[in-house]
Design brief:
The protein has 423 residues and is mostly helical. 66% of the residues lie in helices and 0% in strands. Helix 9 runs antiparallel to helix 10. The longest helix has 25 residues.
Length: 423
């Protein structure tokens, strides 16, 4: 049951170490991080407050390192419970992760023999089936509705890890990794909770390690790069991408996976203002997709293909000021997107609206933005709404035009406004 008084162990350790307030500990952690070789770490009082709550989240690896350094105790002694439950942590020194990547934390030991409570081999298959179903539902079900069951399935899998062995345990771990990855995607792209997404993706990496799935590890690490990349922290994002590429080399990475890694890095570079580098990466990704290779694309990699690469390319060209080329790329993406890619379609329409505004075509821009809003009314996607708002800002010179006022009526009608505030 939740501790009604919060995480008393952490509070006691903090006080004993001389940090009388949560803010004092946050400041001390931020200052201590560089001395431990951790760059770009900034801890706020809100984060410390969450750790001292009745249900503290499992800290990220860099946070763990600083906490244990300052307070002189292990994570479980500080009142934290690993994502896998209160089990003895396995030594993870042999699982080295490249600098800048979230390192695995406390993991449940793989039983040397069958655990006391075992489940049949079908359990692994059933866990994979549920993860597969959630993966398909993501494209059409409201993210706020899907998030809870996806996270619940991941936590159920964590329990089953200590009650399974052999290939069954590996299948359960694979399902857990995919579920945590999907939950992290929802938290970052749909719910706009990057801090929470970072914690969830760390759990996904731990599970991928249990499954010994380096390609899933590469996918998780690349998703972690979005977090600093979107915040403009280029060096940190680049380090995460080095880690992702390192993991990809350990497995039979398909051309699609390798091209997606290029696309992720390109988006991070674009967000950090380095569009020339981003365009080079997009060109390399196109070459990879065109050449292909003998390796099959993982089933879970359902968020990328030639259509998505065209959308990535159009966005980079837009940010680089290559508006005519961006329009061409975005129109190609719209033609290629399959019917079930409604979320991505909102993003493409939003970018197309911004392109048309930049070209001085307010009517066409408003038409594209309204098409994005039509889709957002059916399937909400925070990233898509962000692109529509970017387009509206680009339309500021025509704010008194009838088409822009009609767009505002759509953008700020009762349903859209309440939905945006609620989410």
């Amino acid at each position: 049951m939740p501790r009604p008084t919060g995480n008393a162990a952490l509070k006691a350790a903090r006080t004993a170490a001389g940090y009388r307030s949560q803010d004092a500990l946050a400041v001390a952690m931020t200052r201590a991080a560089p001395t431990l070789g951790i760059r770009g770490l900034s801890v706020g009082v809100r984060q410390v407050r969450r750790w001292e709550s009745a249900t503290p989240p499992w800290p990220q690896p860099d946070h763990q390192k600083v906490l244990t350094h300052l307070l002189g105790q292990g994570m479980e002694q500080l009142g934290f419970t690993p994502p896998w439950g209160a089990t003895a942590a396995r030594e993870t020194s042999s699982r080295r992760v490249p600098t800048g990547a979230p390192a695995p934390g406390a993991l449940p030991p793989i039983p040397a023999q069958a655990p006391a409570t075992t489940h049949p081999a079908s359990v692994g298959r059933h866990c994979e089936e549920v993860a597969r179903a959630h993966r398909s539902l993501y494209w059409t079900v409201a993210p706020s509705a899907l998030h809870a069951p996806v996270l619940a399935h991941a936590r159920l899998g964590c329990t089953l890890l200590s009650e399974t062995a052999g290939i069954t345990r590996q299948k359960v771990a694979s399902a857990v990794a995919e579920s945590y990855l999907l939950a992290g995607r929802i938290e970052f792209f749909d719910l706009r909770e990057p801090e929470r997404a970072a914690e969830t993706l760390t759990c996904a990496l731990q599970a991928a390690g249990e499954a010994n799935d380096s390609l899933m590890g590469a996918a998780v690490l690349a998703h972690t790069a979005f977090i600093p990349g979107w915040a403009g922290r280029r060096e940190e994002a680049a380090e995460r991408m080095v880690a992702a590429r390192t993991y990809a080399r350990r497995g039979p990475a398909s051309a699609e996976l390798l091209a997606w890694l290029d696309a992720v890095e390109a988006e991070c570079e674009t967000r950090c203002g380095h569009t020339r580098t981003a365009l080079h990466l997009i060109g390399h990704a196109e070459g990879l997709l065109g050449a292909g290779n003998e390796h099959a694309t993982p089933e879970w990699l359902d968020w990328f293909g030639a259509d998505r690469l065209a959308a990535f390319k159009g966005n980079v060209q837009l940010q680089a000021g290559h508006h005519l080329q961006a329009r061409e790329s975005l129109l190609v993406a719209l033609e290629m997107l399959p019917p079930e890619s409604d979320k991505q379609r909102t993003v493409v329409y939003g970018d197309l609206a911004t392109v048309e505004a930049a070209l001085g075509h307010p009517d066409e821009a408003c038409e594209a933005a309204c098409r994005a809003l039509d889709q957002l009314a059916v399937t909400w996607y925070a990233t898509g709404m962000d692109r529509v708002k970017e387009a509206r800002r680009a339309l500021a010179p025509w704010k008194n035009e009838a088409c822009v006022r009609a767009l505002d009526d759509r953008l700020y009608d009762w349903g859209t406004t309440v939905s945006a505030l609620a989410r």
